[in-house]
């Protein structure tokens, strides 16, 4: 390769890393972690979360995230989540708009709790209107680390989550909660 091509490649790489803001990595998990989930393991999905990501210092992306959130909350009549609801909440609900990294989310984000029966409509909506934003859709089985890193779905691109912020186990929902078969 001549020096000119190498220089152009370097400039392109530098520009794209500045535009994207960071290098997107996969949420690699090691073999010992993967082997925790056996094919015949009895896994129950109680609910899902949708998390929408944006680069918090990029005004365009932040505004896009705010607008998408407004439309989503209005489309599905979403109210604020009560305290201590995560794996199971009484109904569809939302958390705060995070203007900075929060918990396992390494960049700006907003999130909603999705009951199983609203999965298709909400995920279809977010797939249609996510625009430039990356989206994580993860189940809640009572094992946050596996739910986020191994069994999740991503739209657009994978955002590298902060693994040390995810616990192995979460308390299961109380037996009074209805579970769909
Ligand atoms: C949202 O609430 C409005 C007014 O109460 C109602 O007409 C509409 O059907 C609700 N939409 C959903 C998706 O529940
Ligand atoms: C996505 O980003 C491009 C370039 O910044 C912008 O023109 C476009 O309007 C954005 N899309 C949405 C849905 O905001």
From TrEMBL:
Protein name: Dopa 4,5-dioxygenase
Keywords: Signal
SUPFAM superfamilies to which the protein is assigned, alphabetical: DOPA-like
Record flagged with keyword Signal: yes
Pfam family membership, one: DOPA_dioxygen
The UniProt record lists the keyword rRNA processing: no
Species this protein is from: Adineta steineri
Signal peptide feature range: 1-21
PANTHER family recorded: AFR070WP
């Amino acid at each position: 390769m001549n020096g000119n091509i190498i220089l152009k490649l370097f400039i392109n790489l530098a520009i794209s890393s500045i535009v994207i803001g960071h290098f997107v990595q996969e949420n690699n998990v090691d073999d010992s972690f993967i082997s925790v989930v056996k094919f015949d393991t009895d896994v129950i999905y109680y609910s899902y979360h949708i998390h929408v990501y944006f680069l918090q210092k990029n005004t365009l992306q932040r505004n896009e995230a705010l607008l998408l959130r407004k439309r989503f909350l209005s489309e599905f009549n979403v109210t604020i989540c009560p305290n201590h609801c995560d794996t199971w909440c009484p109904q569809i609900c939302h958390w705060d708009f995070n203007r900075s990294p929060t918990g396992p989310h390494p960049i700006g984000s907003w999130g909603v709790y999705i009951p199983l029966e609203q999965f298709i409509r909400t995920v279809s909506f977010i797939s249609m209107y996510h625009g430039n934003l990356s989206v994580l859709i993860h189940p809640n089985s009572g094992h946050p680390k596996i739910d986020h890193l191994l069994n999740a779905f991503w739209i657009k691109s994978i955002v590298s989550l902060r693994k040390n912020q995810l616990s192995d186990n979460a308390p299961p929902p109380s037996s009074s909660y209805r579970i769909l078969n």
